[in-house]
Amino acid sequence: MTRRSDPEALSVSDAVKRFVRRMRRDKAESTVRTYRLDLRQFVQWCDAEGIEQVSELEKIDFELYQDDRAAEIEPTSLENQMGLLKRFVKFCEDIGALPEGFHESVHVPRATVEEQSRDEKLSTEDATELLLFFRDKSNDLFGSKWHAILEVIWHTGARIGGIRALDLEDFDSEFHVLEFRHRPRQGTPLKNKQDGERDVAILPVVAEALECYIEEHRIEQHDEEGRAPLFTTRSQQARPSTNTVRAWVYQATQPCWHTDEPCPHDKRREFCDWTSSAASSKCPSSRSPHAVRTGAITFHRDRGFDPNDTSERVNASLRTIEKHYDKAARREKMENRRRPQLEKLSLNNESERE
Fold this sequence. Notes:
This is XerC/D-like integrase. This protein is mainly α.
């Protein structure tokens, strides 16, 4: 569509492209990519229904689309996708492709708090067993890429983008610090851009694992920008892709690394296809980087780590942490509330026996 074209003649596909370009102005590229993929589902649905132009959309179409998506995705994903669709329809109004107020016909279902926080996470128990296994230097996996990346995500709560962004020089081995920096022009943006930049202190054992990885397992490579990534691959790009990082984490969290118990999926590790990088995500017991991050944030909170420090450390808002990650039991929450306050209820300022 040219500048002077009739907005009502705009195709659904072209409207999505325009919306994505608008979002790119102030959203991280990873977020924009998610928007594009989610709205592709709507474009395909419109194609199947014979809807070519935005102006052909009717209010009932959004209800029908939601019914179809609800049968395929989880409630939290449905809420996110319908919310995005509503923003897209509002954008179409803004450019004159749809009548004003049309977006109000897009119903956004609200997932319950339980549904919003139901995503699987790497439990503290499983993380402990995995890390203790990798830290045992007798098994030759200490400092491996699987060990190093699991240590970093568990102790920093970093996202995949943060892991990919780390350069060799971002690891201060003397003071045990990892420096996360936003470098979008060089291909390694952080989700929250400059607000995502932070220095994160790590435990000596984590630093030791990284030092071993660098000395014994890291492939000496530079990326296309001439930078030396902390985590490297043998590929020409040197820096691991998002999918590569994800595969390493899936591999690292497979429980058959550390246990002699029978596989719950009736597999034997030496003959299991799921142990390969390409198929690691198919193992039902493995966990994604996001699941490790979720478990890590929960671990920080359950150990009494200051909420504000946790927020800065993992680069997530307090509201997000409380809503999605704080899994403390109701009794623990009660204890946290009442202990500093309970004595105020005593008569004559005297402590009373319970």
